[in-house]
Amino acid sequence: MREKSCIWCQKNEPTDSVFQLLFKPHPHPSYVCQSCQNIFQPIEPDKACRGCGRSQEGQDYCYDCVRWRRNEKECLANQAIFVYDQAAREWINRYKFEGDCRLSFLVQAALKRSLKPYVKDKTYIICPIPPSKKSLYKRGFDAVAHPLKQINCRYTELLVSLSNGKKQSDKSRQERMLLQGAFALKEEEAHMIDKKVLLIDDVYTTGATLHCAYDLLKDSGFSEVKSLTLFR
Fold first, then answer.
1. Half-sphere exposure of 140 (CA within 13 A, CB side)
2. What is d(CA 196, CA 192) in angstroms, rounded to the nearest whole number?
3. How do beta strands 159-161 and 183-185 pair?
4. Residues 113-166: pLDDT tens digits?
5. What's the DSSP call for residue 171?
6. DSSP output for 187-201
7. pTM (2 decimals)?
8. Which Pfam families does UniProt cross-reference here (predicted)?
9. Which one of 12, 140, 168, 185 has the largest count of C-beta atoms within 10 Å of its C-beta?
10. Distant-in-sequence, close-in-space partners of 62: CB < 8 Å, separation ≥ 6
11. Which residues fall within 8 angstroms of residue 223, CB to CB, at 6 or more apart?
């Protein structure tokens, strides 16, 4: 018997015999055991804040989004797929900061389902939030774009990061809320400015990063800007 190791809990489990493997498809190289199939808590869109996608019931906007709407001309509409709980924090740490890109496998199916309406619509440009040059060099892969590649989702890199590469988790809440001028629009994409955009990011925390991208794209002439994040 052969063994396969779960990419999340890293426990080994027996697989089919070599003889059986001759007549069956090989298991996916990013294997997840039965107990780790549903480690993330999904957010129901009809039970979420209309602004940031936070899981809640009984009101249209959460406290944070009420403040955004009070201070901004418009508020970004974000859809979040999973709750940003302890399992999500561990995933972010292992995937982004330890560089285990195999772990994107755990979010790919849900991401593909959430993107389906926008892919089918064909009027949206799917645009991942770009990493800083420092972060990309350190990790060796684009953490936001990687799962899009894995599910064969076409996307356009409209933005360039002007960030210094400091992790969001290392910034104070005030630093994150005051984030400005973090992105620039690629000149070669200027012909698309009358299109609609769906921004993709991993985590919505204060919303400053996404709102910064939103403001730039709206000010540049894009007709509509929404966002989709893995976690909130």
1. 6
2. 9
3. antiparallel
4. 999 999 999 899 999 999 999 999 988 999 999 999 999 999 999 999 998 756
5. S
6. GGGGGGTTSEEEEEE
7. 0.85
8. Pribosyltran
9. 185
10. 49, 51, 52, 54, 56
11. 194, 195, 196
